[in-house]
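hey so i finally got around to running the thing on that chain from the lab meeting. sorry it took forever, my laptop kept dying and i had to restart like 3 times. anyway pasting the input first so we r on the same page abt which one it is
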Amino acid sequence: MKKENFVTLVMSTVGGLIFALGMCMALLPEWDAFTPGVVFGVIGAVILLVMIFVRRKMTGAPAIKVSGKTVGIVIYGVFSTIVFGVGMCLTMVWTEYMIPGIIVGIVGIVLIVGLIPMIKGIK
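ok and heres what got predicted. didnt touch it at all, straight out
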């Protein structure tokens, strides 16, 4: 295993676990740990963001260029993730909206899958 792959594996695992633990702490009322959960979530997100830059530096990839297309793809990705999250909330939090939640969740999944041709392009 190459060094950059191992570093990426470790950083993404640690960052993902800390982020997930923070979200559980913040969103489960039984735990009564909202503020520490937000802190843990932010720390996990920062580790995951730093991992991207460390990976690019170790592989010798050029810096990320910000263009109109990049901003559009990020906005689309955030929107599609929010749609998916709303569908999950409808099914898990407000159980009386189970069927609409499933439909909204499927629409969110379709939107997220639509990111692939946007990023890679259709050839």
